[in-house]
Design a protein that fits this description.
Blueprint (H helix, E strand, L loop, with lengths): L1 H24 L5 H8 L2 H15 L1 H26 L20 E5 L8 H20 L5 E5 L3 H10 L9 E3 L13 E4 L15 E5 L10 H9 L2 E3 L3 H4 E2 L8 H14 L2 H8 L7 E3 L5 E2 L13 H5 L7
Parallel strand pairs: 1-2, 1-5, 2-3, 4-5, 4-6
Antiparallel strand pairs: 7-8, 8-9
Helix pairs in contact: 5-6, 5-9, 9-10
């Protein structure tokens, strides 16, 4: 009986030892085998998927590069196809462009006369002049003179790419120190002289001033003071307007570019002038009639610009 008692007491101990042995067997072998045994089926699939994703990383990277290259080739091919079709002036291929000998100077010497917000508006107008000239059928030789002060600071902060602008001459000097005096013609609405045609040997100056009529006639006075020629665009001969004949810098630039392309002041005015100017065509007899007006420029779509009429002495 004593032996049986010893055996019965030893049996649970043996079973316990066997249990420990089984549990210890789970840790035997490689780490990977042990992990696989401890993971559920779902977890193992997830792990395999992760490994596969990492292995195919370079393949996916190459596919992205291939797709990007394919899109680039498709765009290039599309542009070539458009080359054989009738294109708008905004999509004209550079090989169709015939540069003009005409020089157009933006006079930025009025920096100290403007508030910071108005200098910011002038910056947008200059951006528009640059962009429109780059797209024009007959781009002019564009100059930016007297660059400095608030304007340069705003351009450095909000448009750092301006230093890489192409096909434009940027000077910190005054325009009278850039072009010979006898070649200059200041475009100002206060001049009694009407510009019938544009002389390609001349350099036309546009006053870069957004002042909301605080400095009326200042560009005209500056032109007389410097003893240079001056003139106004023949606006009154073709258009009757609800507002003063003072246009934004970019509008004057766009009108000149449109005139060079179309050969008609009337077409140029009604292509560029914004609706808010209330432009009405003038007949030869002097009578007025309504004419379809072109859509407003992008620079006038800005809510702030609609509230305050952007004006520049031209």
């Amino acid at each position: 009986m004593a032996d049986e008692s010893v055996k019965s007491e030893a049996l649970p101990q043996q079973e316990n030892d066997n249990g420990d042995s089984k549990s210890s067997q789970k840790t035997v072998g490689s780490n990977g085998e042990a992990e696989n045994q401890s993971l559920s089926k779902r977890q193992r699939k997830k792990q395999q998927k992760q490994h596969k994703w990492e292995e195919e990383r370079e393949l996916r990277k190459q596919k992205r590069k291939d797709k990007k290259q394919q899109r680039r080739l498709e765009r290039h091919s599309h542009q070539e196809e458009e080359g054989g079709e009738v294109q708008s002036s905004r999509k004209r291929l550079r090989r169709d462009v015939t540069p003009s000998a005409l020089r157009l100077l933006l006079d930025c010497s009025f920096d100290s006369l403007m508030l910071s917000k108005d200098v910011g508006k002038l910056h947008k107008q200059i951006q528009r002049c640059y962009a429109e000239n780059r797209r024009a059928l007959h781009p002019v030789q564009l100059y930016l003179t007297s660059l400095g002060g608030q304007l340069k600071q705003i351009m450095d902060e909000k448009d750092k790419g301006w230093v890489n602008w192409k096909e434009i001459t940027i000077k910190s000097e005054h325009y009278k120190d850039v072009v010979a005096k006898e070649e200059l013609v200041y475009l100002t609405s206060d001049s009694p002289n009407i510009l019938e045609e544009m002389d390609p040997t001349k350099a036309y100056v546009i006053g870069g001033l957004v002042d909301h009529n605080h400095h009326k006639g200042i560009t005209f006075e500056k032109a007389k003071e410097l003893g240079i020629d001056h003139a106004q665009l023949p606006l009154s001969s073709f258009v009757k307007m609800n507002s003063r004949k003072v246009l934004a810098v970019n509008h004057v630039c766009e009108i000149i570019l449109a005139y060079l392309e179309k050969g008609s002041w009337k077409e140029a005015f009604f292509t560029v002038l914004p609706q808010r100017k209330g432009a009405v065509a003038v007949d030869k007899d002097g009578a007025d009639h309504q004419e379809k007006e072109a859509e407003d420029s992008d620079s006038d779509s800005d809510p702030e610009t609609q509230q305050h009429t952007e004006k520049a002495q031209t």
